[in-house]
Amino acid sequence: HLQKKRRAATARRQHLKSAMLQLAATEIEKEAAAKEVEKQNYLAEHCPPLSLPGSMQELQDLCRKLHSKIESVDEERYDIEVKLQKTNKELEDLSLKLFDLKGKFKRPPLRRVRMSADAMLRALLGSKHKVCMDLRANLKQVKKEDTEKEKDLRDVGDWRKNIEEKSGMEGRKKMFEAGE
């Protein structure tokens, strides 16, 4: 039963679609015929029938008139094309602006700001902030113990003096005596 309903709905949808397409096709034909009639009327109004004169002088005058009309029409066409290009450019710019406004925003370059955790929480939470986030206060304090190596290093002092003392026969004698 459900499949029959689906088939009927699909068939009805297809029938409506084909009827709409037929209507659209007839409307397009009517528009084309109306445009053709309008074109014929315009041509009849603006372009009188051509009558060729018999003499050479009259033919030359007619040619000059036609050339001047062609030039004026070309100038108008050029002006209209320039206006059209300008308008298209403006439309393109406006559509880009619209896309920028609608689309993804570019992230602004972020600046590094020195701010403590407390100040950050205060800025985010406002007056609700009560927790102290002083992280350095929670750190364990460790005292350095003097190890023997560090003492030896401090006792040695400047390395140049140490090398001068060990150079030569006297230095070797001291090292030999110290070794024993």
Automatic annotation (TrEMBL):
* Assigned GO CC terms: troponin complex
What InterPro entries does the record point to? Answer: Troponin, Troponin_I, Troponin_sf
The parts of the chain that form a coiled coil are 16-104
Query: Would you tell me the protein name for this molecule?
Result: Troponin I, fast skeletal muscle
Q: Does the keyword RNA-binding apply?
A: no
Q: Name one GO molecular function term.
A: actin binding
The alphabetized UniProt keywords are: Acetylation, Actin-binding, Coiled coil, Muscle protein
Q: What family does the entry list?
A: Belongs to the troponin I family.
Reading the lineage from the top rank, the first entry is Eukaryota
Per the record, the GO terms for biological process are: cardiac muscle contraction; skeletal muscle contraction
Signal peptide residues are: none
The membrane spanning regions, by residue number, are: none
Q: What is said about its interaction partners and assembly?
A: Binds to actin and tropomyosin.
Q: What is the role of this chain? A: Troponin I is the inhibitory subunit of troponin, the thin filament regulatory complex which confers calcium-sensitivity to striated muscle actomyosin ATPase activity.
Instruction: Note whether Coiled coil occurs among the keywords.
Output: yes
